[in-house]
Known about the structure:
Chain A is of the alpha/beta class. Helix content of chain A is 29%, strand content 22%. Chain A starts with a strand and ends in a 27-residue tail after the last helix. The N and C termini of chain B lie far apart (45 Å). In chain B, α5 (133-146) crosses α7. Classes of the chains: A alpha/beta (329), B alpha/beta (354).
Amino acid sequence: xxxxxxxxxxxxxxxxxxxxxxxxxxxxxxxxxxxxxxxxxxxxxxxxxxxxxxxxxxxxxxxxxxxxxxxxxxxxxxxxxxxxxxxxxxxxxxxxxxxxxxxxxxxxxxxxxxxxxxxxxxxxxxxxxxxxxxxxxxxxxxxxxxxxxxxxxxxxxxxxxxxxxxxxxxxxxxxxxxxxxxxxxxxxxxxxxxxxxxxxxxxxxxxxxxxxxxxxxxxxxxxxxxxxxxxxxxxxxxxxxxxxxxxxxxxxxxxxxxxxxxxxxxxxxxxxxxxxxxxxxxxxxxxxxxxxxxxxxxxxxxxxxxxxxxxxxxxxxxxxxxxxxxxxx
Amino acid sequence: xxxxxxxxxxxxxxxxxxxxxxxxxxxxxxxxxxxxxxxxxxxxxxxxxxxxxxxxxxxxxxxxxxxxxxxxxxxxxxxxxxxxxxxxxxxxxxxxxxxxxxxxxxxxxxxxxxxxxxxxxxxxxxxxxxxxxxxxxxxxxxxxxxxxxxxxxxxxxxxxxxxxxxxxxxxxxxxxxxxxxxxxxxxxxxxxxxxxxxxxxxxxxxxxxxxxxxxxxxxxxxxxxxxxxxxxxxxxxxxxxxxxxxxxxxxxxxxxxxxxxxxxxxxxxxxxxxxxxxxxxxxxxxxxxxxxxxxxxxxxxxxxxxxxxxxxxxxxxxxxxxxxxxxxxxxxxxxxxxxxxxxxxxxxxxxxxx
Lengths: 329, 354
C-alpha cells in the first residue's frame, strides 16, 4: 500500500435539485459521482475518460477538496482529506495542484505572469532564495522566457498560457497534479508540446497525475492506467494496454470503436451506439449502460454489476455481467 | 437541379478567394487566395487549426459574412459555372439553402430558441418554395424522420432546448436538407459532441450524402474525422491552402512540412507509445502574417528563400503518384487520382524524404 499516494474510497456526490423560490423543496438529485473507488500510485498517470456528464470534472473537484463528497472518503497518503482541519487542509493543498482546461479564463487578465505564477507563495510563504528567483526558474522549467515575467496573459498564445498555468501548479513542488482537460482547448500542433512538457515534468520531479480528458487518444498517450467512467461510475479500470487493446466492458468497446483514427486505411469500427447518455437525475436501474447496450439482458436491469475482476484477469476489473474481450453478444 | 442551368465545370469552384476584416483602420487578412473545386457526390475536407480561415472561407462561399467588417476583396465562387460573388442579394438568396446549404458546430445557437423545431424546418419550405403551411409541416415531420429523430411526429412541436446535443444537430441537418441542396457545407458539425454521438452524426451525413448525391464540404480540425470520411483534403494555414490531395495520398506522403508536422504531433488511439513530435511555436496572428511562406517561422526545413518568396500551390514531382497503390475512395472522381499539390518550395524533398 505504500506506493499509493491518493486513494478514493466509495465516493459519491449528489447535488440536490430544488423547486420553488421561497419554499424550496428537493425534487430530486443529480448523482454526479456515485460510488467511485480507485488508487493513484506514486509517479504514475491515471487517465480518467468518459463522455460529458459522466462526472469526471466533479470528481476532480472532490479530489482537490473543493467539494465535499456526499459520502465516502479521499485519502492522501494515509490521511482522510475531509476530516482535516482547515490549517491541515491548506498544508496538504501544497502537495496537490490543479491544471485547468481553459487557459483563457483560468488566468487573471489583470495580473502579470510573474504575479500569477508567484501567487501560491502569497498564501503559503516565500520559497528559499526569494519569490522572484523561483518564478523565473519556474518559467524556464515550462519553456517560457523568464524575461517575460512582467507581461500579461493576453500577450501569450493559448499553448503558452497553458504553460503559465502549469508553472503555477508547480510552484509549491507538489506531488500530485490533477489535470482537468489540460489540452482540449489547444490546437493539434500545440497540444503535443504541452503533452510532452507534462511527460518531461513527471519524469524530472516524480509527479503523479490524474489526467481527465474526453479525448481517448490523448489519454492513451499519456496514461499508465486508465479508468473509464459512465454516468458517475467507473465501468472499467486497468493499465493502458488492457483498456485499449483488450477492453471487456461494452461501453469501453463502443467508445474505442467510435474514435476516428488519423489513418485513411483504417476505418472507424463497427459499433455505433444508439441514443445519448441518460440523465444523471434518473439513471437506469441495474447497469446504467444497459439502455444503450447490445448485450443487455434481464439481469442487467435488476442487478447492478459490481466493478470486480472477472474472467480471471487480475488488475483489470470491469463492471459488466457479460464482460468479454469479444464485442459480440 | 432544373434543366435551365448550364452545366459547365465542377459543381462548385472557388478560385483565389480573399477575405479581409476591416475595423478602425486595422485590417486582418483571414483568407488569402483560397482555391478548391468540388464534384457531385464528393467529400472534400477543409482541414485547419483555429485562425486558418477555414470557416470564414466557407461563410464567404455561402454569402453570409457580415459586411462590414468583412470584405471579399478578390476571387470567384462558381456554382455549376455561375458566378455567385457580386450577384445581387435577391438572386443570391436563390442559391443559399436551395443549392448550397450549411450546418454549424453549435446547433443550440443556430436554432431559434423560441420557435418550435417543426416550424423552423417548415419555414425553409414556406419561404423558398411557397409551400402551404400544412404541407410544409408534413414535410418537416418527414425530414425529421429522415435524419432518424425517433418519434418525429410527436417531437415536431418541441423546442430546441428539449433536444439533446446530438438530436439538435439532426434538426439542423434536417433544416439544411429541406430544399435538397447540391452542396452541403458542414462547419465542425461534431466538435461539440461526444465521441459516440459524433460517430452517429458522421454516419448519418455519409448516408444522406450518398443518397442525395450531394457534394459535401467538411470543415474540421480533426485529422481522425477527415481520414474516416473524406475523399480529398485541402489543408489550410494562414488563410491559404498549403496542400491538396486525395486523403490516402496526403496521409501517406505529406508534401508540405505543416502536414508532415500535424501527422507527427497527433496522438493515436491505435498505436502504443508513439513519440509525439510537436510543431514549434503557434499559429500566426492574421494581422501580421509572416513574410514569404507563412509557415516558415515554425518550419524545421525553412531556408533563406522561404522568408522572402511566397510558394505557390503547385503540382510537384513526387514518387509516382498515380498507378499502383490502393485504389482511391469510391469518390466522385471514379478511380482517377486527383492531383497532389503543395505550397512548399521543397515539396519534392518533403514527400520523398519519408
